[in-house]
Design goal:
alpha+beta; four-stranded antiparallel β-sheet; five-stranded antiparallel β-sheet
Length: 372
């Protein structure tokens, strides 16, 4: 498949390698329903359950995270386990109080945020949820009040400082129990999609005419409904998405060529301060790709658990058989790690507890605000 490199416009995706594109903006399976992609995983799960005599081993791969982070995990509770805070984008968390107005809830959260010596802009996100659900950029205090007007009561949220950096990646890390060093099995480069104005076309037309965005109007157009008819000046860049989530419109590229011993060692140092974390993906921002490869100048946004994907499979150039092979490898690894943690004395939870956590998370996600 022939590819070409696109130079990134100034101020967008700064620090990322040039974006490689091909004649195929989307793979044929890229936006298939999850159950279709995961059917082979489920069949393998059943086979491995017979081999290891347990269906629940993946749920203890990260024994200090409830259900190993398969579903319903708290972003705050995982980040709070980190001993070395220097790697993190700092945050505060609080719960929307039913007894307070939206304005009072916002003021209370901002007060705690400022007391932590953090400043706007910030990113607000639900504590429970995945795939970028409910993530927004807050540049002015009033925007938080508007966000909370749509946020469910008694639900917890994070207010996290915006990273110093623009470039973003998902880095999948595995460390088997008892080992002093881990390994990175995947790096996904996450590109913010954009269009550039020509002084003639409306924003809606620019989106529809874009090689990739035009194939996904259901993702981009609703988010920019208020600006559909705006004529974008010549050369002005409009970002089409903020959250680094594939399902929310970010462009994912396979970055495995950038895996280095130096980056792996940096993550080893970070996870030395998170005992019993063995498997998952970090979402992080970084200054530029060269410094990331040196294990320098990056900030961790989230640490995800057992349900994490090696998201480079959503690169449109990935073959279907390769994507399925990666998913099967991931879940074989989960069973292997779960087997070792069971031998160390950890008890497996019931599948009923997994179902209950899934139902709870799903009920919250339905009520979250729209994502930037």
């Amino acid at each position: 498949m022939k590819t070409r490199k696109i130079a990134l416009p100034k101020g967008v995706n700064e620090g990322m390698p040039p974006l490689e594109v091909s004649s195929k903006p989307l793979s044929f399976f890229e936006f298939w329903p999850a159950w279709v992609m995961y059917t082979p995983v489920i069949l393998q799960w059943l086979a491995l359950s017979i081999k290891y005599r347990s269906m629940s081993l993946p749920l203890i791969a990260n024994p200090r995270i409830p259900l190993s982070g398969m579903v319903g995990e708290s972003k705050v509770d995982i980040l709070d386990q980190a001993c070395d805070r220097s790697y993190l984008c700092e945050y505060i968390s609080t719960t929307k109080n039913r007894q307070l107005s939206n304005q009072e809830n916002a003021q209370q959260a901002l007060s705690r945020y400022y007391q932590a010596k953090l400043t706007l802009p910030a990113v607000v996100k639900p504590d429970l949820g995945c795939r970028g659900a409910g993530v927004r950029l807050i540049e002015q205090e009033a925007q938080l009040e508007d966000y909370l007007a749509e946020f469910p009561v008694n639900a917890r949220f994070l207010l996290q400082e915006r990273s110093l950096y623009q470039a973003e990646a998902g880095v999948f890390y595995i460390r088997y129990p008892g080992e002093k060093q881990g390994r990175i099995i995947s790096i996904t480069l996450k590109y913010t999609p954009w269009v550039v104005g020509d002084g003639i076309k409306s924003l809606k037309q620019l989106i529809l005419d874009d090689e990739r965005a035009g194939l996904l109007p259901h993702i981009y157009l609703p988010r920019h409904a208020a600006r559909h008819d705006d004529i974008i000046p010549q050369g002005e860049v409009v970002r089409l998405a903020f959250a680094g989530s594939h399902s929310r419109g970010s462009i994912f590229r396979n970055g495995n060529e950038y895996i280095t011993p130096a980056l792996t060692q940096a993550l080893d140092r970070f996870f030395d301060g998170m005992p019993d974390y063995h498997y998952g993906r970090l979402d992080l921002k970084f200054k530029d790709i060269d410094e990331l490869m040196q294990g320098k100048n990056f900030q961790i946004l989230e640490v995800n658990g057992a349900s994490s994907e090696a998201t480079h499979i959503w690169d449109s150039r990935t073959r279907f058989t390769e994507a399925i092979g990666v998913l099967l490898f991931q879940y074989r690894t989960l069973f292997e790690i779960g087997h070792l943690t069971r031998q160390a004395g950890h008890k497996t939870p019931s599948l009923l507890s997994l179902y209950r956590a899934w139902r709870e998370e799903k009920s919250w996600v339905l009520d979250y605000p729209t994502t930037d």
